Amino acid sequence: MSNERQSAPSMGAPLFEMRGIVKSFGGVRALDGIDLSVRPGECLGLCGENGAGKSTLMKVLSGVYPHGTWQGEILWEGQPLRAQSVRDSEKAGIVIIHQELMLIPKLSVAENIFLGNEITRPGGRMDFDAMYRRADELLRELKLTDVNVAMPVMNYGGGYQQLFEIAKALAKRARLLILDEPTSSLTSNEIEVLLGIVEELKQRGVACIYISHKLEEVARVCDTVTVIRDGRHIATQTMSTLNTNSIIALMVGRKIESLFPRVPHDIGGVIFEARHVTCHDTANPDRKRVDNVSFKIRHGEILGIAGLVGAGRTELVSAIFGAYAGRHAGELYLDGKPLKIRSPQDAIRAGLCMVPEDRKRHGIVPLLGVGDNITLATLQHYAHLGKIDKHREGQIIQTQIARLRVKTASPALPIASLSGGNQQKAVFTKMLLARPKVLILDEPTRGVDVGAKVDIYELIFELAAQGVAIIMVSSDLNEVLGVSDRVLVIGEGQLRGDFVNEGLTQERVLAAAIDSSQAA
Amino acid sequence: MQTQYIQQLFVRYKILALLLAVAVIWIFFNKFTDGSFLTPRNLSNLLRQMAITGMLACGMVFVIISGEIDLSVGSLLGLLGGVAAVLTVNLGWPTWPAIATVMALGVAIGLFNGLLVTRLRIPSFIVGLGGMLAFRGTLQGITHSKTIDSVPDQLVYLGQGYVSATLSTTLGVLIVIAVAVLTVVRRRQRKQLAIQVLPAWLDALKVVAIAAVIAGFLVTLNHYGGVPLPVILLIGLLAVFTYIGSQTVIGRHIYAVGGNLEATRLSGVNVTRVKLVVFGLMGLMCAFAGLINTARLAAGSPSAGTNGELDAIAACFIGGASMRGGSGTVHGALIGALVMASLDNGMSMMDVDSYWQLIVKGTILVLAVWVDVLSGTQRD
What we know:
The structure holds 2 protein chains of 2 kinds.
Chain A: E1 16-25, E2 28-38, E3 43-47, H1 54-61, E4 71-76, E5 79-80, H2 86-92, E6 94-97, H3 109-113, H4 128-141, H5 158-171, E7 176-180, H6 188-203, E8 207-211, H7 215-221, E9 224-229, E10 232-238, H8 244-252, E11 270-280, E12 288-298, E13 302-307, H9 313-320, E14 328-334, E15 337-339, H10 344-350, E16 352-355, H11 359-363, H12 370-374, E17 383-384, E18 387-388, H13 390-403, H14 420-432, E19 438-442, H15 450-465, E20 469-473, H16 477-483, E21 486-491, E22 494-500, H17 506-514
Parallel strand pairs in A: 3-8, 3-9, 6-7, 7-8, 13-20, 13-21, 16-19, 19-20
Antiparallel strand pairs in A: 1-2, 1-4, 4-5, 9-10, 11-12, 11-14, 14-15, 17-18, 21-22
Chain B: H1 2-12, H2 14-32, H3 40-65, H4 73-90, H5 95-118, H6 124-143, E1 148-149, H7 153-160, E2 162-163, H8 165-192, H9 200-222, E3 227-228, H10 229-247, H11 249-259, H12 261-266, H13 271-297, E4 299-300, H14 308-318, H15 330-349, H16 354-374
Antiparallel strand pairs in B: 1-4, 2-3
Helix pairs in contact in B: 2-15, 3-10, 3-13, 3-14, 3-15, 4-5, 4-6, 4-13, 5-6, 5-13, 7-13, 8-9, 10-11, 11-13, 14-15, 14-16, 15-16
């Protein structure tokens, strides 16, 4: 990769412009006068905390909210664009690639690429030959040569699937490509490939809007950055005048002294031990996802678990928590006594709690209120003979919401209406109320904005200071090194390293994760 | 803006909208039956008919909230009612032991269904479909496909009896007092927790409206014999099920399981137990409904309860329960049952052909859910 970034193409008229966009929901302004513009071949970074209004802005932009339901102006090549639907804006050449991939697992790669845009013969019959040929061409443009486009999409990993989405966008002749958190589920190699492709699309004159919490990526591929906060336009500057710290300052509106407010804390004796944990794949029981992993953790210790995506970290911790679906074995000891855990219920009773990785699927009950979610794991504590003491429950909810600074208008609001960071805080609270001795955190800050991240780190340090042992799985090496006292590295299901976090570098952790000969 | 506001109003006061629909239906039928629909006698009849669907709907709404469905309840109602007839008539059992046995049997069969769903992981749709056939078959077997009549009077009283005017009036007054006290307590609690409270006049109006409805209800029914016993039973069940749904741990867990099973399991909730409770309650409600049905007809019929599951399920959806689980209310389901019963009763009085009755009921169900989708309470 080259370090000299091509200076933003300052010449030429904007391809796409938004002027003074205002969008209200029942009197609340979600967007309050947003301006942005992007030229052909330019990549614009759009930054803002969760809840700043990025998703709403994207929905206005892509026609999900039809013209007329918001105020302001959208110009496409200088002409007003009045999209009534996503189809209209796609016709103009605007294509969004969503954070969650929108591929249909059992359909072939080619069928997915041309979904809704099929090449047909007369009579509506699909022209598979033409589709396969064209899909092949598109993937070749993206430097993918080892894909059989007739195979179902589910045979390929997350990195490939992200590229299929881009191919899908290219098949629609996208001239403005919007990438919403495109790398959140990719490995670092895959991220490299993706960023390279964005560079190449820019060369070909495609305009991009790149939305990401990963500011290093923004700094690499974007020419210009627009920062929004609380629905307002804060700043638009060329990347050459910015760095990641100054972007963060603009995003949160205050200076964050340190992302990792680490406090020195005492570490006691061993509280929990896992021996010979082995997990078999659910679909293919011969394959071991976790292979004979043993480790110990002490009172007040923060144990980071690093490794590549798919290395078996989530499987390891869910097996310990009693939530792994496949066949698994291993011995667990808490305070030196053997522990029998057959279900999450057993684990929580014993003092072993987990904040799961996939918040939407495993963390929240979307229709229930914020308060009901918070007390879900400990409801029986506030009940007498099965009847909930609503008064006591309400008080506890109020205290917890205040303590963790969960931003919600009312505890009765459905939790689905909160931003990711606030949902995560609520899930945290739910588990904290169960008074864990050992707290497992699986990707605790995924999809969480910077402000909430700092709150969560502070909480982790506070818990450790109280003597809670914390096991934190994370793919963000900055986070692992910034938070942990000790780091385990898992690679292909095996324990590849156990490092004390003193002078430990990202390179060493990564090397251990990738290469089995580095084992400590 | 305007439509959003109306939508919000509609969501908040959905029950009012439903009651409005009931009123429209009643006025319509009253007009086309020359005033014989809205007579104490017919309303008494209507409520008695509704009681059976209502009992099933009470159980069904929890099943649906927990994200499952039970298609076997019509047949199970028939079977349990049939067992009651066989025990009392053919085997000469005294009434009360027979009732206790039928209830225990109902819970047992409900739990068995629940075990098939949770432990053996058979989808509840299939378990219900299987039960629908098997229970109907068993019923035909034990009754030899013949109606068993001359059921003992004690049992008949359960279905055909009335509560004395003094007792029902006392109950009515007690309910109004309870509602008033609860409203005040709730306001105070919400204020303490700094949760928004409705304006005082609106809450007062609510209490007055409830008192007026109860008074009207009592005056009308006492004009014709009194409040039917099954109706009193149903009101009791409404209270119990609303209490379970809103005040108890198991109730909260039922909503949580339906809203997100995995997240609930990972929160340490024993989701298997929650579903077993739900199916057990459903079985118990089938026993209630079966007993009342046999009592009302004074006979056990091999075709009793046919299509009962469809009425109960329709009642829940008309009452605002979500297909995907996680939301719904008991009182909504009962108003849904009232809608279905009103349609049955009104169209019979108008001498509408039975094929038309089916078409109209089907159409109303689809329309009601469509309106619900429009009002934005059912997420896509």
